[in-house]
Design a protein that fits this description.
383 residues; eight-stranded parallel β-sheet; homodimer; alpha/beta; Enolase-like, domain 1; 2 domains; TIM Barrel; 12 helices
Chain lengths: 383, 383
């Protein structure tokens, strides 16, 4: 783990971009760094720290492989209560420790009277700079955790949701050799639905290998890997015979006409992933996909995700909630919304060996929300 | 006031339609009536009682006049905490003490573990019977009040809103003689925006009369009163010259093509009122109106209204929150959402002489939210 080194590297850059740069003198030996706030009763303090998640297995999807994921751990403190947040930044999405530190350094929470002003604060954060959705999500999550703790309630209760309706989560099987795939399916024994990465050129082999060892329901994620709509439809018909329940991002996010045709003809629901980012992208997908995969790191956090679900439901679209590789912090935040969705893919914390939070549990494959306030996590001493 | 008589009349009918009719034996001397619940720790108890609101002035819109409005006062009690709700039922919307009592008698809250299961409970209430939106709103409001009280927070805070952004409310001037209109404008002195009812055949006289005594911003509500789109556009141009800020429901709710043409050509925003009921009606209005007027009694309550605002904003539509004649109970509930809207028309409690709640205040024309939990009301002994 090199988070201390990264912290030093990026904290310097961050301080350079700050108006209230002197606040950085508060960085302490643990690598925590106070930003943009005088210490004072009733003022929010934002701190952040880089961290690298170690993956248990090399992770391969249609476009790349990797062994670690950089995240930024965020804290917002108010009157002695700390809210936790996290930005998970797989490299292909364009964010990094540096971009997150730059962005977070620009945020001045001191101008807001209290953490309950979620709408004002998150609108300000959203409008501060374009992009930086993972970094924005880290602030959104920390603020929700903080406000939830101040009310003493978990967010699923504040949203009026029934924890018993939290879904089973899928467990992801990456593109690999039959031997590795069979081993991973065995490791996935506690999970009742598996998510299979396709689009790597060996799609039928992947499915046949998995079907040789389990008859569990499967969903597939093609990550834009299929190039021709007719071949895609043929494959979907074949997949339906094999007990697949939906197909995520079968073709390029850019081919809207082809996707609309595929969705109209597909015997399985089609779910947009790369094709959707945030709130403004939901309504234009009507008729193009059957549903959307919402991820906090793409949309900017819990507030945006909640709105996206309202929009998708108003169009009778399916909703899936997904994740990046992340600690139990971001996964527990996403889980607060999970009673609202059809399918969950919230295994990002199960894929890492150095989770520095404990929160939502997966028991017999089902998301189990706890009664803790906010996003329902405890920070471990690891980070 | 004849609420005791009405209560006796309708409680009998309600009991007749009840499966758990024996619960009605709990009706007490004050006219409160326990419905569909055994008394027990951790069970919700629903009670309701008819009440008639006395209007300070005869109220005339394009279609009718009246001097009182029937409402149903609702309480949901859970572990000694009471949430208050209200159904306001102006006769032209088709609900009455009888229909509300029939509907409320069908509700069994005993099956739900606690009031935080808002989504489950309100989905159940919504699906129980078609229509009955005011009666549904009364349950929604009481449940929000109860859940908010159990968290110790007002709903505007649970929704992350800034009370300082609550809008000014308009004050409504009905169709009347110049003399009466001038007197009403003087009574409306504390209000900074007036809502003028048009469509009664004397539109220019109404506006000229008001302009002879005040230069305050005005909005107009035509209640579908204009029949021809060209004349409507001419009138809107004339109104713009007179300082009108928007035009509510200028023509029939049925003429979508005409409305789309009018909205496209109108120099003032057009706001749907009769043309919109609840969540499912928002998306189809894209391009037809510039905005929507949301009323709890039409859409079924606070949960639906909050969703409608999310939908309207995602289409860049304007949002107005309106009301029926109601006590401070329903008005305070609607006010919780008001920091999210462009315009508020929340004067329904100011038009009656027998308000049995105190809650949101109007100070110098502005909606002032208080810090009380839930919907922020106290019940007075009047009812």
């Amino acid at each position: 783990m090199n988070s201390r080194r990264d912290f030093l590297k990026y904290s310097g850059l961050a301080a350079g971009s700050l108006i209230t740069a002197s606040a950085f003198s508060g960085c302490d030996a643990s690598g925590q760094c106070k930003v943009s706030n005088r210490v004072g009763k009733g003022k929010m303090k934002l701190r952040f720290k880089p961290y690298d998640l170690q993956l248990k297995h090399v992770f391969t999807i249609a476009s790349n492989s990797r062994t670690s994921t950089p995240v930024m751990l965020v804290e917002i403190e108010y009157d002695g209560v700390i809210g936790y947040g996290e930005a998970s930044m797989p490299p292909y999405l364009g964010e990094s420790h540096k971009t997150a530190a730059d962005f977070l350094s620009k945020i001045n929470l001191e101008q807001f009277a209290n953490p309950f002003l979620l709408d004002d604060i998150l609108t300000y954060v959203d409008e501060l700079v374009a992009g930086n959705y993972a970094a924005k999500a880290s602030v959104d999550i920390a603020l929700h955790d903080l406000a939830g703790k101040l009310t003493g309630q978990p967010w699923y209760k504040l949203w009026g949701l029934n924890a018993a309706k939290a879904p089973h989560t899928s467990f992801t099987i990456g593109i690999d050799t039959p031997e590795v795939v069979r081993r991973k399916v065995k490791e996935a024994d506690p999970y009742n639905i598996l998510k299979v990465k396709l689009g790597g050129g060996n799609d039928k082999e992947m499915i046949q290998t998995i079907r040789s060892v389990t008859d569990k329901p499967l969903c597939v994620d093609v990550n834009q890997g299929w190039k021709d709509k007719y071949q895609a439809l043929d494959m979907i018909h074949w997949l339906k015979e094999k007990g697949i329940v939906f197909v995520e991002q079968p073709m390029s996010k850019k081919g809207l006409d082809e996707m609309a045709w595929l969705t109209e003809n597909s015997p399985l629901p089609t779910i947009a992933d790369e094709a959707i980012q945030t709130v403004k992208d939901v309504l234009p997908l009507k008729g193009i996909y059957s549903g959307i995969n919402i991820k906090l790191m793409k949309c900017g956090g819990m507030r945006a995700a909640h709105k996206m679900i309202t929009l998708a439901r108003s169009m009778n679209m399916k909703v899936m909630i997904g994740c990046m590789t992340a600690t139990s912090c971001a996964i527990s935040a996403a889980s607060q919304l999970s009673p609202l969705v059809d399918w969950a893919d919230l295994d990002g914390n199960l894929l890492i060996s150095n989770d520095c939070f404990e929160g939502v549990q997966i028991v017999n494959g089902k998301v189990i929300l706890n009664d803790k306030p906010g996003i329902g996590v405890n920070k471990l001493s690891l980070a």
